Amino acid sequence: EDLGMKHRLWVYSGRRGVHCWVCDDAVRKWSPALRAAAVEYLTLVKKISFLEWPHRAVWRCAGSGGRVCAGGVGSAVSTISLDRRPQHREPLQGEFPKKRDSVQRWELLKCRMERTRVSGWTGKSAVCYADWEIMLQYCFPRLDINVSKGVGHLLKSPFSVHPKTGRISVPLDRQRLDQFSPFAVPTMSSLCHELDAAGDDGEQEDVGETEPKRRARDYKKTSLAPYVRVFEQFVEEMERARRGELLRRS
User: Fold this and answer.
1) CA–CA gap between residue 204 and residue 206 (Å, rounded)
2) Which of 49, 51, 77, 143 has a 20 to 30 Å separation from 234 between CA atoms?
3) Which of residues 122, 139, 156 is at a domain's end?
4) 133 closest CA partner among 93, 177, 84, 86
5) Could you tell me the sign of the dihedral formed by the alpha carbons of 53, 56, 57, 59, in that order?
6) How many whole angstroms separate alpha carbon 201 and alpha carbon 217?
7) CA-to-CA distance for 117 and 125, rounded, in angstroms?
8) Three-state DSSP class for residue 138
9) What's the average pLDDT block by block, 10 residues per block, for the chain (250 residues)?
10) What is the span of the domain harbouring residue 184?
């Protein structure tokens, strides 16, 4: 959004990662230097430290209402380093063992890291962002710069099969991300079973139908159908935008 990219398709890799396919005409014509600059804009250094007001992109990720880094950070609380704030380190180390799990330790840490209120983006008061630093350090997405900057880099297409897990690389519905589970993604074996079952039903219904035509229709009876629909909606949206742009130019 910060860089004006409108047509973005998010695709699960089939294992641990997520791919963002940016399909804007102008962006697809970017040089490797521009592509690298875009990825660097979205990259944070390994060791996060805020000595001044955070960048607005970081503010959205970890700050008010941000969800990118809010979940899953509890498991890292027991290994955090508070070298820059020794006044907090010793009391926390003494109280952490008394807590039942990492979630309780995280709540304890947040209570201790009270911030000084500032007004606007130009405030000069000292502000404590230790919890943000920890969230970003452990949970901010790690981007592969080579995939984005190299025009000739090999890419996994949507709906390809991950060679190690067998899971299908499926598009993600951004409106239902909270319901997505990588363990529920269709695999090659599960789709084969579903297609076999759909084929048996189809033979009973339409005996005279040709095999290729029946197979082309049967995928809609499998667990892959919702993901195909997400992809179709993305393509349809791009087509509408392109027609609107051609009309505007004419």
Assistant:
1) 6
2) 143
3) 139
4) 84
5) positive
6) 12
7) 8
8) helix
9) 91 93 92 91 72 69 57 53 62 82 81 56 55 77 86 88 95 93 94 85 60 70 94 95 91
10) 8-41+144-199+218-249
